[in-house]
Amino acid sequence: MSFIENINETVIDICRNAGDILMSGFRSESTVISYKSRTDLVTNIDKESEEYIVSAIKNKFKLHSVIAEEGSGRETDSEYVWYVDPLDATNNFAHGIPFFCVSIGVYSKIEKGIVCGAVFDPCHNEMFYAVKGKGAFCNGLPLKVSGIDDMGIALLATGFPYAKDDMERNNLKEFNRFLPGIQCIRRMGSAALDLCSVAAGRIDGYWEPLLKSWDTAAGSLIVQEAGGTVTKYDGSEYDPEYPEILASNSLLHKKMIQILTSE
Ligand code: IPD
Ligand code: CA
Ligand code: CA
After folding, report:
1. Which of 42, 91, 97, 215 has the most ligand 1 atoms within 8 A of CB, as the residue to mutate?
2. pLDDT tens-place string over residues 98-126
3. Which CATH class for the 151-261 domain?
4. Measured from the CB, is residue 189 less than 6 Å from ligand 1?
5. In the beta sheet, which residues pair with residue 40?
6. What's the pLDDT band for 162 if we cut at 50, 70, 90?
7. What number does the ligand 1 atom closest to the CA of 215 have?
8. Which CATH superfamily is domain 3-142 in?
9. Ligand 1 within 6 A of CB of 215
């Protein structure tokens, strides 16, 4: 087993254990919801999950950097940076909607890209994971993007940023450009699982603005390893620190770039 495959075994174990933490607080009266802003929720379970993840990484890979959504990570000089979303889709979680996950992607400063990652959906017991160059899997079975090449019958997903009242940036312009010419759009509420859905061929494409590195790091590699394409809106190289993403089954990518970049 290579060093990266070994890291990914740990990523998978940590995601599964963090998934147990999420389930312990799901639909539980003891879960406490607070507001980072009017539209941005966080719960004590986001924090518990992150506390566990960050300490588990530290136990095994003491020197690696960790960038985690709730702020408990640490920056080091290590080659490896772990991007951690301890609970992706807090809004679903807080409303009792069974669609959320843990997402962890590992970036190599030398390879300048994500080298492995996992996304675990504990409600459906689905563990999505990928190691660069080794394919993408869900519960041990290989993932493959869809074969749809006609936008007219494409099922896409997207999401809306927390700044809903900013009409220039709230994604409604892009949404309206796509809607008339496709089969339909889903807003499932988890960027990481949207990406896994592209990888699994359940949807054909996905775009979203104003995301963070921890939302997309793992999912971006899972899509690419399943045969899909992941870029910025203009088709240039995906960067986890850049706040927008376009992912597709590859066949629809050019068309989606045209729609996103048209005025
Ligand atoms: C959110 C989800 C959602 C996306 C938001 C993200 P969080 O993550 O991924 O689908 O639309 O932009 O911030 O806050 O629940 O971890
Ligand atoms: Ca997230
Ligand atoms: Ca989160």
Report:
1. 215
2. 999 999 999 999 999 999 999 999 999 99
3. alpha beta
4. yes
5. 37
6. confident
7. 9
8. Fructose-1,6-Bisphosphatase, subunit A, domain 1 (3.30.540.10)
9. yes
Residue with token string 């518990």: 48
Cα torsion through 209, 210, 214, 218, rounded to 10: 10
40: which 2 tokens? Answer: 């941005």
**88 with 195: CB under 8 angstroms?**
no
Report which ligand 1 atom has the smallest distance to the Cα of 87: 16
Whether 106 and 114 have beta carbons less than 8 Å apart is answered as: yes
Q: Which residues contact 200 (CB under 8 A, 6 or more apart)?
A: 128, 138, 143, 144, 226
Alpha-helical (H) ranges within 79-212 are 90-94, 172-178, 191-199
Domain boundary assignment for the chain: 3-142, 151-261
